[in-house]
Amino acid sequence: MSQSQYMISDTEHLDEMGMEQGPVVITRWVSFTVAEEIYALNVLDVQEVLRAAEITPIPGAHPAIRGIINLRGNVVTILDARTIFTLPEKTFDEESRIMVVELRSGEVAGIVVDSVAEVIALDEDTVNTARRGSSDENASHILGVVPQVNESGAEKLIILIDLKGLSDLAEK
Amino acid sequence: MAFEPDNELLQDFLIEAGELLDALDNQLVDLEQAPKDKDLLNAIFRAFHTIKGGAGFLEVTPLVEVCHRAEDIFNLLRNGELSVTPGIMDVMLRVLDALNGMFASLRGGVLPAGVGSAFLHEIEQLAHADSPAAASVAVASPPPAMPSSPPLAAVAPPVAASAVDLAFDDLMRDLQAGEAKDPDVLAASTAPSSDLITDEEFEALLDQLHGKGQFHLPEAAAAPAAKVNSDEITDEEFERVLDSLYGKGQGPTTASTVPPPVASPAPPSAPPSVIPAAKPAAEAVKSEAKPEVKTEAKAETKPETKADGKADAKGDTTVRVDTERLDFIMNLVGELVLVRNRMNTLKLNFENEEISQVIATLDMVTSDLQGAVMKTRMQPVKKVFGRFPRVVRDTARMLGKEVELVLIGEETDLDKNLVDALADPLIHLVRNSVDHGVEMPDVRQAAGKPTQGTVTLSAAQEGDHIRLSISDDGAGMNAELLRRKSVEKGLLTQEAADRLSPQECFELILLPGFSTKDQISDISGRGVGMDVVKTAITRLSGTITIDSEVGVGTTISIKVPLTLAILPTLMVVVSKRKYAIPLGIVSEIFEMADKEVNIVDGQATIIVRDRALPLYRSNQWLALPGEVIPTRAPTDLVVMVQVGAQLIALVVDSVIGQEEVVIKPLGELLHNVGGFAGATITGDGHIALILDLPGLMRRNLQQRNRPKLKVVA
Question: Are B606 and B612 in contact (CB under 8 A)?
Answer without folding.
Answer: yes
